[in-house]
Specification:
333 residues, Rossmann fold, six-stranded mixed sheet, two-stranded antiparallel ribbon, 52% helix, globular
């Protein structure tokens, strides 16, 4: 049986990038130290700040909320009901139980109840992948709810694996605009609230281990709408590299933050202030036109509700074509 590097007690997890095994106590110490370091190094927020944590029912966001409470921060949760059938129902149940059993405040926004559409319907109405409408909707609601309830900062559960995969994709395309905005802190500006990612020094494996030792129930399945998502393929590539050379992901992403991100930051500093959306008042780059979310709401809200299974079939077909090529379509029967 492997032993904890810090105390010699039986280990509960091995972490190759640290070349060490850890028991439950020292795993928790490692995770909280890494979060505290990320908060301090990037001046994410102060002890007196009110924090709104975007929670989905997955391991990362629930672990983040748990860590911030453990560290003594004033942190409440925000859950968005996306209308993705049983997946959303289970996610909401788990998130609500997490908050209830700990006496925490959870704000809930139901997309269909408040805006007249859900993600499956939006995907069909816009004829785009579900992740597009999902990301747009979440960003809009994150910003709005943070301002509405007077929070100082919004925290999301993006971990090291997530950020390294995004960085790899942006680097492959040399998308300098996206690279210049890839930061663990997006400062408050132009009507947008401050957004932070305190988990940037921790991996998915470490987040899963945290939930296990803390007894946190979470949604294990990935979102069914994300089948064939390019982001997942980038993660697999980085995982393969990290398996051969532990620490590669951390070196890649954290090295970018230390050495390249400061050189790109001047691009975001020069950005012009957006106008206000005439429909909802949120910042908009549409020059007097409704913002992207309001246009999505108008389009998808007037569309007949679409069953989840119909969109899932289309997503699965796209994933198949992406893997095997369009020429295989005649062979599917």
């Amino acid at each position: 049986m492997s032993k904890c590097r810090s105390c010699g007690e039986p280990a509960v997890v091995d972490l190759p990038r640290h070349n060490a095994n850890f028991c439950s106590v020292h795993l928790q110490q490692l995770c909280t130290r890494q979060v505290e370091r990320a908060i301090s190094d990037h001046s994410m927020f102060a002890p007196e700040d009110r924090i709104l944590v975007a929670v989905s029912g997955g391991k990362d966001s629930l672990a983040l909320w748990d860590m911030l409470i453990e560290l003594g921060y004033r942190a409440d949760g925000l859950y968005i009901g996306l209308g993705i059938g049983e997946y959303s129902e289970e996610s909401h149940r788990i998130t609500a139980e997490f908050a209830d059993t700990r006496g925490l405040t959870l704000h809930t926004v139901d997309l269909r109840a408040e805006h007249g559409f859900d993600i499956p319907t939006a995907a069909r109405a816009t004829k785009r992948v579900p992740c597009s409408a999902c990301g747009l909707s979440k960003r809009h609601i994150f910003d709005r709810e943070t301002r509405r309830h007077g929070y100082d900062v919004l925290a999301t559960g993006h971990n090291l694996d997530d950020e390294a995969a995004v960085l790899l994709g942006n680097t492959i395309r040399w998308d300098v605009d996206y690279l210049s905005r890839q930061s663990p802190v997006l400062p408050e500006r132009h009507g947008f609230p401050r957004k932070v990612k305190p988990l940037i020094r921790l991996t998915e494996r470490e987040m899963a281990a945290w939930c296990v030792v803390r007894g946190i129930d979470y949604v294990v399945e990935e979102c069914p709408m994300a089948i064939g998502n390019r982001h997942a393929g980038l993660k697999e590539t980085l995982n393969a590299m990290d398996e051969r050379s532990p620490g590669t992901k951390a070196s890649f992403y954290l090295g970018f933050l230390d050495r390249m991100a400061p050189l790109l930051r001047e691009r975001t500093d020069a950005e012009a202030a957006p106008e206000a959306c005439p429909s909802c008042g949120s910042p908009s780059s549409s020059d007097g036109m409704p913002c992207s979310f309001c246009r999505l709401e108008e389009n998808a809200g007037s569309h007949e509700p679409v069953p989840v299974r119909m969109v899932l079939n289309r997503v699965a077909r796209r994933a198949f074509d992406a893997q095997w090529g369009e020429e295989s379509s005649d062979d599917r029967g």
